[in-house]
Amino acid sequence: MSRSIPSPLRRGLLAFALCLPLLAQAAPDDVSPAVREAIDWAKDHPRDRHARPGQEPSPLVVAHRGASGYVPEHTLASYALAILQGADYVEPDVVMTRDGQLVARHDNELGLTTDVSSRPEFADRQRTQEVDGVALTGWFSEDFTLAEIKRLRAIERIPDIRPGNARLDGAFEMPTLQEIIDLVKTLQVSEGRRIGLYIETKHPTHFQQLGLAVERPLAELLKRNGYASRRAPAYIQSFEVDNLKTLDRLTELRLVQLYGSGQPYDQQRRGTGLTYAQMASAEGLKAVAQYADGVGPDKSYVIPRDANGNLGSPTDFVVNAHAAGLKVHPYTFRAENAFLPANLRSSDAPHERGDIEAEIRAFLDAGIDGLFIDQPDIAVRLREDAE
């Protein structure tokens, strides 16, 4: 069963029917109806559309889980909207299904971002297991086939902060990575510019233990679609270390080491003692450069906040990363007060927008090469204003 489609999507579907002849000229013959539908929906909801032709722009604007500040994350509509807003890259997180298919979701636990909990036919799939050393209760991608995944519909992760997104709950399905590639390639034609993929492998050690290792299927899928060299518009990122080293042997695509807190889970499991803090030192960054082309730090590695929650002063992270030959793409910029430094909030209301532009400018002044953002149109507009 599925929820009723909101009126904005119905309007988009009507426009889609009218545009089918034009889309057929621009898209490959084998593009799925879901891809075509997402493109049309995004065209009906452009929100400050910007386009930028040419090669790798600077700073690079990476649409975090798509235009997730406007549409439920990791949906074809979210990616399409991000591209129409001018994003250079879209960021799909990928997890595995029981039958070894790559689908886009930030977590392998599906309860936060799909309607699985409301579907009685899947009630018996709920269980508790350990993921990356943490006990979680819910529904997990590895317990579902792709056909079953396709029966689920996306919901907004943070409805209290993004109630507009929540009005689209139930409208969109979970896409496969192949569908996202088809979407990107289709829009490259109609937009007349290069659009990239910035893929994150989620919970790689966990999936390896299940016999569902992501590395080889991912590298092979990307190669089949023409993403095989360092010049290809694609990055692969991970919070773990060993799976990036494996990918470094499987593909020539550019790799990015993500930085969180504590230890990478694979290093914790192996008992190496290697921490993100050690990896963030000048020597640690040189070691990362042996297998990666860039780093994706939490913003606090670049500019931490002070004791009052205000934006502080830049560290030497960017300088040291550049000295090691690494690009720096921090995460995640979000426009709502709930996510901004205290001195850049517009009010006490967490859902209202604050001065994200000032935050972005501070990080650009610190020398970053790109950024992950939930509202890509804001970063694109700032870049254009600076030119």
Structure characterization notes:
The chain has helices spanning 7-26, 33-43, 76-84, 146-149, 163-166, 177-191, 204-209, 215-224, 242-250, 265-270, 276-279, 282-288, 317-323, 356-365, 376-386; strands spanning 60-64, 89-91, 93-96, 102-104, 127-131, 134-138, 196-201, 234-238, 254-259, 294-297, 327-328, 370-373. The chain has 387 residues and is an alpha/beta fold. The chain has one domain (7-94, 174-386): Phosphatidylinositol (PI) phosphodiesterase (TIM Barrel). Strands 1, 2, 3, 4, 7, 8, 9, 10, 11 and 12 form a 10-stranded mixed beta sheet that branches. Helix 1 crosses helix 2 (33-43) and helix 2 (33-43) packs across helix 3. The longest helix is centred in the N-terminal third of the chain and has 20 residues, at 7-26. 48% of the residues are buried.
Please summarize what this structure is.
The chain is of the alpha/beta class. It is 34% helix and 13% strand.
Properties at a glance:
TIM Barrel, alpha/beta, 387 residues, 10-stranded mixed beta sheet, single chain
CATH topology: TIM Barrel
- Helix/sheet category: alpha/beta
General shape: globular
Could you give me the name of the CATH homologous superfamily? Phosphatidylinositol (PI) phosphodiesterase
**How would you characterize the largest beta sheet?**
10 strands, mixed
CATH architecture: Alpha-Beta Barrel
Low-confidence stretches: 1-28
Number of domains in the coordinates? 1
Q: Can you give the helix content as a percent range?
A: 25-40%
What is the β-strand count? 12
**Separation of the first and last Cα atoms:** 50 Å
- Figure out the total of helices: 15
CATH class: Alpha Beta
What percentage of the residues does DSSP assign to strands (E)? 5-15%
**What is the ordering of alpha helices and beta strands?**
HHEHEEEEEHHHEHHEHEHHHEHEHEH
Report the mean per-residue pLDDT as an integer.
90
